[in-house]
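To illustrate the input format used throughout this study, we show a single complete record. The first block contains the structure-token representation of the backbone; no residue identities are included at this stage. The design step must infer an amino acid for every position from geometry alone.
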């Protein structure tokens, strides 16, 4: 069970792969919110996919017969999943969330209690006996023929969106980066979901000629757009994990959050850009609607020229 969100669901895929590889005869059913189901819809490790609507009812009215399972793996571990699992008479293992450690790191800026392992590694270790395999996350498309990455493409993907403001690199900086890329001979594709529609419209107006793939929550269309890019530049967001699941080099910009929370790109070609000279980071483990210090230096001091230079070195432009 991992109900949300996009990045968290994608981070379960290494555990699914390893569990199925080590136990080929096992049948794995997966429970997820409907809006994130495409992240695992065609995953070959999964036997059946159960989806939950916004009111947490099962789509189509098909519920879980909990006691048919030999083991239940609760990777969400919150009130909702505990309620869904009420009455289960089979073993249940739960993901350890380290909530107190995250609170201490945000409140007192002390990271010593945070686990060294990434979230994906911790998902794997939730199941006794499973060990990491050194591979990354995965996204499977429908059909046997999977789309391929255009590694020598002259297109760079820009993913300016994120659910929370303090995790968004300034839009003006994305525009300046796009202009620098254009001068170098690269075009840009602006990539996002339905929540990024306004960002996409603004960038379409400011960047004539840029391909805009924003405005729909079609994970496979977004993935296909990413695969046409040599590399992507993104925030700490679900699209960061999508890019790494597709094996696309990712330059990732962290603002109010920190990599030590465990959500850095997992076993993937990536580079993280962050401002390590601020005493106010992290100010949240999920992001905020505004900068509590009102200066937003965590993002504003990461300049387009810096990101461009790192991208040149990292992606071999």
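Output of the design step:
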């Amino acid at each position: 069970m991992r109900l949300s969100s996009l990045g968290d669901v994608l981070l379960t895929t290494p555990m699914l792969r390893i569990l199925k590889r080590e136990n080929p005869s096992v049948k794995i059913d997966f429970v997820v919110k409907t809006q994130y189901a495409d992240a695992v819809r065609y995953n070959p490790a999964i036997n059946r996919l159960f989806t939950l609507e916004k009111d947490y009812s099962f789509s189509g009215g098909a519920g879980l017969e909990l006691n048919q399972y030999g083991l239940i793996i609760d990777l969400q571990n919150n009130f909702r999943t505990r309620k869904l699992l009420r009455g289960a008479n089979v073993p249940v293992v739960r993901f350890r969330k380290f909530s107190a450690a995250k609170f201490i790191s945000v409140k007192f800026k002390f990271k010593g209690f945070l686990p060294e392992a990434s979230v994906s590694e911790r998902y794997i270790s939730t199941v006794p006996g499973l060990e990491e395999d050194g591979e990354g996350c995965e996204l499977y498309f429908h059909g046997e023929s999977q789309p391929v990455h255009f590694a020598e493409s002259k297109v760079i993907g820009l993913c300016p969106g994120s659910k929370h403001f303090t995790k968004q690199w300034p839009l003006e900086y994305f525009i300046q980066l796009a202009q620098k890329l254009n001068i170098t001979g690269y075009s840009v594709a602006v990539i996002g979901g339905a929540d990024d529609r306004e960002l996409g419209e603004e960038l379409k107006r400011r960047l004539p000629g840029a391909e805009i793939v924003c405005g729909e929550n079609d994970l496979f269309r977004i993935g296909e757009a990413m695969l046409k890019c040599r590399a992507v530049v993104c925030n700490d967001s679900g699209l960061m994990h999508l890019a790494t699941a597709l094996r696309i080099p990712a330059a990732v910009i962290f603002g109010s959050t920190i990599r030590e929370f465990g959500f850095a790109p997992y076993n993937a070609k990536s580079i993280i850009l962050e401002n390590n000279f601020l005493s106010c980071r992290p100010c949240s483990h999920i992001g905020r609607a505004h900068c509590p210090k009102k200066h937003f230096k965590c993002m504003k001091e990461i300049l387009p020229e810096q990101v461009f230079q790192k991208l040149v070195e990292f992606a071999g432009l």
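Structural context for interpreting the output: The chain has two domains: 6-126, 155-315. The beta strands are 28-33, 46-52, 72-74, 92-94, 155-159, 187-191, 211-213, 231-235, 250-253, 270-273.
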